[in-house]
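Support request from a user on the community tier.

User writes: "When I paste my structure tokens into the form, the page sometimes reloads and wipes my input. The last time it worked, I copied everything first. Here is what I submitted, just in case something in the input itself triggers the reload:"
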């Protein structure tokens, strides 16, 4: 701020809001930081689309679903206008989570498929395992046991392939807790809790499962 560099200030606020406040469960402050960051980057571009998607994730988590849709709508519009396939895939990913929170099976599945078509370079990294895990959780949330188990299996394969098998433990733990073997679910969730993957904000969810 002192240097009058709004884009750098926005980047710092995005990191503070999403990586710190959201991770530890300081949800209102997380949303405030991302909103402030967006106000500092008025021009449509990849950076603003990413901020919109991060803000939508936070808003969806706290149940402000209409606001989350508005942010995602802008992110998707920007991504399409500039041809940013990565930003478009991330928007679809977050749309799938939002649709599952609304209990909309058709849109949840459609958005998951859209994010997969085609997979970009981002998918080859641990981010791909995170996407498959979120897809499994979303499908479990709408009660689609078969697809949820399929995506949990894919998350496990991908996480192992990229050297981070612990990422998929939430997917397998959650789907087994809902639809399968409760003993395996407990083993996976305990192992997930012992890893460096969980954020403090999700302690309640893991305990509930």
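"...and here is what came back when it finally went through:"
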């Amino acid at each position: 701020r002192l240097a009058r560099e709004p884009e750098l200030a926005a980047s710092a606020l995005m990191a503070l809001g999403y990586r710190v406040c959201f991770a530890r469960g300081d949800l209102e402050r997380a949303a405030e930081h991302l909103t402030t960051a967006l106000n500092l980057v008025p021009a449509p571009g990849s950076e603003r689309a990413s901020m919109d998607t991060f803000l939508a994730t936070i808003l969806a988590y706290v149940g402000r679903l209409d606001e989350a849709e508005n942010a995602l709508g802008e992110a998707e519009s920007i991504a399409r206008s500039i041809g940013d396939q990565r930003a478009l895939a991330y928007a679809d990913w977050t749309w799938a989570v939002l649709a599952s929170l609304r209990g909309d099976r058709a849109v949840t599945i459609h958005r998951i498929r859209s994010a997969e078509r085609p997979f970009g370079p981002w998918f080859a990294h641990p981010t791909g395992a995170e996407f498959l895990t979120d897809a499994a959780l979303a499908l479990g949330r709408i009660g689609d046991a078969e697809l949820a188990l399929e995506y949990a299996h894919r998350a496990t394969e991908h996480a192992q392939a990229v050297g981070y098998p612990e990422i998929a433990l939430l997917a397998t733990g959650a789907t087994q807790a809902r639809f399968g073997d409760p003993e395996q679910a407990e083993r996976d969730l305990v192992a997930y809790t012992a890893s460096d993957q969980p954020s403090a904000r999700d302690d309640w969810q893991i305990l509930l499962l």
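Agent notes: The reload is a front-end session timeout and is unrelated to the input. The mean pLDDT is 96. The two ends are 43 Å apart (CA to CA). Escalated to web team.
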